[in-house]
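Forum: Protein Structure Q&A
Topic: Joint prediction for protein chains with partners

I've read a bunch of threads here and the consensus seems to be that you should model interacting components together rather than docking separate models afterwards. I'd like to see that in practice. Below is the full input, 687 residues plus whatever partners are listed. Could one of the regulars post the assembled result?
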Amino acid sequence: MPATQSHSSSGLSYPLDQAMNKGLVWQAAQQPCSSASVISSGYQQLNRELPQGGWQAGQVCEIYPHRYGCGDMHILLPVLATLSHQQQWIMMVAPPAIPYAPALTMAGIDTRRLLMVHPKDRKEALWCVEEGLRSGHCSAVMGWLPESDPNSIRRIQLACEASKNFCWLWPDARHQNSASAAPLRLQVTRISAEQANLRFIKRRGRWPGNAFSLSLNSATRTG
Amino acid sequence: MNAWLYLYFPDMYLHSLVHDYHSPVIVITQDQQRVVQVSAAAKQCGIRPDMPLASALFLCPEVVCHTLNQEYAEQLLQQRALWAYRYSAQIFPDPADGLWLEAGSMLRLFGGIEAFVNTLKDGCQQHQWPLQYGLGLTPVSARWQALADVQTLSLNTVQQQHALQTLPLDKLHLNDAQLLALQRLGIQHLGELLQLPLAETGRRICPQLMQQLQQLHGQQKPPSSLFTPPLKFSEKVIFSHDAEHRNGLFFPLARLLDSLCGFLHHHQLSVRWLALRLLHRELPETRWLFSFANHEYRYEELLQLCRYQLDKQSLRAPVTELQLSVTQFTSRQHEQASCLTTDDQTPLSGSLINRLQARLSASQVSVLQSTGDPRPEASWQAQPADESVTDSLSRTGDWPIWLLPEPVPYPPPADIIQGPLRITSGWWDNRMTRRDYYQVMQDEQLLWVFRDDQKRWFLHGYFS
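Posted by a regular:
Agreed with the consensus. Here's the joint model:
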């Protein structure tokens, strides 16, 4: 990167250099390597929209549901079912309610792999997500972080990249329109009992794209 | 082959005290009359062992004095014996400050006497223990060579004999009267003493010395009893300056944990809890119990867990002494999975849970356990994460993903998508439930609401 070199050698700093050093600018040269493991989302339509044709390890995905109960968990059920057959934990940090075991079992998820952590405050929650990612004992970490800020998301993304795990976060809806280090940002609204509307606010490696509707009953078991 | 190795730890008591190497520290007798051991910095001030305390204080008024605690001194020797137990099966602690190790049967394992001694020396160096060793064909010969710090590394009879002949008598920890009597006769080295008739020596100088001289060539067993390691771990660190902050406890604790891990490795055991005892000057002692969700024996993990647990504690008062003890162990046997088990039976890693529980609290980490009860609120249980759970039963139907901890009153819904699903159960535990569940679409949410038998509506979950 010539821009960074000039910055370090001359000591002069341009706004672009600063932004790049902070990791705020994504460059096409930093394409995510496709060798990292990709798991099918279970929905053909969603696979087509995801940059690598499925959920990719090492990339944080932020999910912004319009409200609770609009199908955001439903679209993750197939991938969680696949991951739950690995001998590793699926960690849920500060889930908004009790995961109802019969529904998860119905979706093919081995509920013995679910580890629920209820942190007391924001600091503990962020620590748990990072620890889960760094420990190497989790196949996926899901975090409901209503008090997260862009910096903590960046930390989590770094941990996620280093550990090559799957990570889904539910940040504060107010951050929806501000910048974030997460490579994927997904907005979910429910249209009807079987249909949800999805829109990628950000997809690393592709343009954000238009909203598309997904039939929630169209999942195929991948595991 | 008969071979004995004597390990002599000079100033063991002094070195076991946590102190700063630049400040003068001395150890004094229990009656606080005389100096016993002197640190390098105190030596520079002119303080010598066996000096009256008053003279020492006169030479260096700021010297830090520690009264020798006999019980602790014995414990220290036990610790060293425990450590040495990795290198030799037969250990005889010498009540002064040394250990006899039976070396003859260990030579083949370590590949020769030099390799054996070097392994021991390296071990001592790691702990920063000063060491003098002596190798001999009999226990007494090994001890005397260690005290004189000869460092013979050969078991050849001629070389051994030569080494013994030249031992200076004033290094052999003889008592003053014996030494004086020998000096009056002009005897400086052991060789000169050995030329005298044994009976004469006993009569003129001291019967005890005669006994030792007899043992020098004859007796094969050391004069103390065999060390057997206890199945209980308890070690402590005494601070020469009080630790005022919990960070000051971390480094000494790391040393204790290292020692514990050696113990665990030797016995192939693991631990689930550690007991820490902190002594204060005035307040009664503090006891901390660090427990883990899963058995642990690795040093790095234990260190990390203790770090998290320490962060949660606060000190009531400065600490003068830190003790770590463990009395309950579990064997590591059951952790080895059979080669024939399928993937499904290998246990999930417990170290993540250990870390989470150490940082948070045990109640904040849980796993789901299905009970098979048809009532939604009774169908699951949050189980402590360290207990194993059984697979949940599969029930067909359309279930919500999120369940509210308590049903919330809800206005009668307008847009019912599906239902009713009647759940009637619980006659056996006085929490009879009769409900009709509906799926309701409201404000872009798919909700799980029910109407109870008194026609009240409640929200109980979300389809997400």
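Chain B has three domains: 4-23+62-217, 233-335, 369-463.
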